[in-house]
Backbone:
């Protein structure tokens, strides 16, 4: 009973969110304790045969996961040169955001918005410790191609480093990881050293909503929740360009604390918009919520902020400039918090057919979206859109 009680307490969402590693370790230890205790207590009464199959199920689960880990990361167990090519690069984008990039393991395929478990032996306290993170990039089959797009002049303005950074979102595994305590804090410290990190990948996991039948797609993200909506954004554009989606309007709403955070994804957005099909209406609205953040008409300070963060943290590298991104008419940067009820009602009023709203952000953002989309069922009978809301959990599960 004590093991059950301890497991119940640490499984509460507030505790799990604040001390995920504690939950992880306690979860593993208490589950084994419960199984052994249950077997010894029941075996004396002749009912042990009801419990020991649980060990088989648990062991089978561990064996399958180990097999998947070896299957997707088998290059690590081969020649040293091949193993080094699989190492991940870690960059500190800001004091609270890390970008991790690694080459896609052979046979690894995923759909936009799915997650992967990452085990980093040099970062984790335990070799077998792994944590789930949303994949911010898309599989290579969602490539927008290199043909002509609506804004070729902006794409031509990208320098080689920025182009390579953007291209990684189509042919590599990219993760935007919010720095907290424990595991992610140690990962941020590893990023300051500028050294590659060994990463073992297991996945993909999670649900990826099918948006091909939606006339209007609205993506709402807060902070690091952009990992989910960015991948979905790229997936929708790819499907439209391939003629597999009926989407004619795509709205991307992102709330961030500082204007410099635009640089996290500026290169990939620039390339995506430059290659986007011309038969889709794209609107990207970025809201900067911090009152002390200065929004500039030019983008020099955004570059300076990124450069100062990198140099102060010891990365020694500068990356893309958001300047070419802000040249697009589809981009709108606003000071203040997004009025989600107003924004979503505008989308509902302007949409006929099927409207999909996908949210990945804080609980307050998700709740605002739910309340805004509570429209009468009779509205559809009167010509209003059919609304579908998908809320992706934000933070640790």
Residues:
């Amino acid at each position: 009973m004590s093991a059950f009680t301890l497991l119940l307490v640490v499984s509460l969402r507030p505790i799990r969110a604040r001390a995920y590693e504690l939950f992880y370790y306690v979860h593993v230890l208490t589950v084994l304790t419960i199984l052994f205790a249950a077997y010894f207590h029941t075996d004396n009464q002749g009912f042990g045969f009801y419990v020991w199959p649980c060990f088989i199920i648990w062991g089978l689960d561990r064996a399958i996961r180990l097999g998947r880990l070896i299957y997707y990361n088998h290059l690590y167990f081969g020649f040293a040169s091949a193993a080094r090519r699989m190492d991940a690069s870690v960059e500190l984008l800001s004091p609270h955001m890390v970008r991790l990039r690694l080459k896609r393991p052979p046979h690894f395929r995923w759909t936009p918005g799915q997650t992967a478990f990452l085990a980093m032996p040099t970062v984790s306290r335990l070799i077998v410790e792994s944590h789930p993170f949303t994949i911010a990039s898309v599989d290579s089959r969602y490539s927008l191609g290199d043909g002509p797009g609506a804004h070729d002049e902006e794409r031509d303005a990208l320098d080689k480093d920025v182009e390579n950074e953007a291209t990684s979102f189509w042919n590599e595994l990219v993760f935007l990881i919010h720095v907290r305590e424990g595991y992610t804090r140690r990962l941020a410290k590893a990023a300051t050293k500028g050294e590659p990190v060994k990463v073992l990948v297991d996945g993909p996991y999670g649900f990826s909503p099918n948006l091909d039948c939606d006339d209007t797609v609205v993506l709402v993200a807060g902070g690091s929740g952009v990992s989910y909506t960015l991948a979905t954004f790229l997936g929708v554009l790819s499907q439209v360009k391939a003629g597999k989606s009926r989407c004619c309007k795509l709205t991307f709403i992102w709330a961030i604390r500082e204007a410099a955070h635009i640089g996290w994804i500026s290169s990939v957005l620039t390339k995506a918009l430059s290659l986007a099909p011309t038969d889709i209406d794209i609107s990207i609205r970025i809201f900067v919520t911090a009152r002390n953040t200065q929004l500039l008409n030019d983008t020099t300070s955004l570059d300076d902020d990124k450069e100062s963060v990198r140099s102060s943290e010891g990365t020694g590298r500068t990356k893309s400039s958001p300047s070419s991104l802000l040249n697009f008419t589809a981009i709108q940067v606003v000071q203040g918090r997004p009025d989600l009820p107003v924004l979503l009602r505008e989308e509902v009023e302007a949409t006929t057919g099927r409207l999909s709203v996908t949210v990945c952000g804080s609980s307050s953002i998700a709740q605002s979206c739910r309340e805004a989309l509570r429209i009468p069922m009779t509205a559809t009978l009167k010509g209003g859109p059919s609304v579908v809301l998908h809320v992706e959990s934000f933070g640790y599960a």
User: Anything to note?
Assistant: Residues 220 and 292 are 23 Å apart (CA to CA). The domain at 216-392 is CATH 3.40.50.80 (Rossmann fold). The chain has three domains: 2-50, 80-205, 216-392. The two ends are 25 Å apart (CA to CA).
